[in-house]
User: Fold this.
Amino acid sequence: MVAPASRFDSVASPVVEFRSVSKSYPIYNSPADRLKELLTLNRIRRHTDFWALRDISLTIQRGETFCVIGENGSGKSTLLQIIARILHPSSGDVCVRGRVAALLELGSGFNPEFSGRDNVYLNAAILGLSSSEIDRRYPEIEAFAEIGDFIHQPVKTYSSGMAVRLAFAVAINVDPDILLVDEALAVGDIYFRQRCMRKVHELRARGVTVIFVSHAIGDVKAIGDRTLWLDKGSIREFGATDGVVAKYLAAMVEKDSAYLELKKPEPGKKAPSQTAPEIVRTIPNIDHRYGDGRAEVLGINVYDAFGQQAYLLHPGSRVVVRISVLAHEDLALPIVGFMLRNHLGLDFAGTNTSREGHDLPPMTAGDIFTVDFHIDLPELYPSTFSFSPAIANGTLHHYKNCDWIDNALTMQMGHSDGTVYGFLHLPCRVELNACLASKAPEQVLG
Assistant:
């Protein structure tokens, strides 16, 4: 049950308190079974229970940024929906104190037939604001959303990014005591995500409790005071963010390694030959693309040292970044390269064929080149990194871009064996160079 605020009152009451909370969903083999169970007088059980949450006990303090991590299906969204009072627990007690603003499933709480402006007033009214309060805050909401004249159009005409912009603008401008964010920011562009993260820091400084669910481990480490790791509906780890994240990433690396073991060729079978690599024609994502069109990037992929496709980057390992390009016109001095960006959208590192002293031969229209960049990864902090491939024509100091794709491939950096302070660990050799304290002062000076 969801208890009234006075139920768990104490001298220093947390804003959210769970006591042995579990949530189950009935799973039926067919719709007919649901109807039969409903109509049968002796209530013959025709379903099985799926436990999304099992025996969750926790407290979240006022002003804390509390993060929740875990694989898909681990119960993260169910936890937030119980805090938002959208769902009720199957057992246990929940106490939530204060106004809750929730940014959960994309577009949740919006009527698609209403305009953005109408939805702003509707959502704010549901959260308890008067008409005069909404009138006063509306200009700030409209300015933060930055969707222009679309604010007057039906929400059903919005892109996913526009919908989340408006939803976040409403959530942060209704003076919430608790802000719930569930992966919705993942659909926003880098510029908007950076603004949102700055706003989260502002809310923290004002004493707002932020409960943040994300697969972006870099964001979790940047803002989380404490972190909960859910695994199949149960608490796996709970405590200081750095410690919980380190254990989570270690478990994911171990799981990925086990998966790659299954993908290895059977004994006696030859691994695919790497002497004539196939043309890469996969571009998982295009945030922005520009160039003069004289050539194009056909695809980009990352492979491990064994020539297998990499799904996770391991600090200290060797990878191959493979880029295939196609010339539409003759290029006298083609250059192929990429930029590596971190989770904040900052250009972290980059290189190209010319920078590495490997000048490519001229390309004629119709030529396809596949270029491999063999990279020894440094010890980087666990986060997401994106690759932006490109082809240009010219010299290193004077060239024209033919094709550039922003954030074409994004990959997670695994956990290092040691602690990474800051963004990366510098290769270092330590020597002891000191005077012994046992010597007399005059010996040391003389």
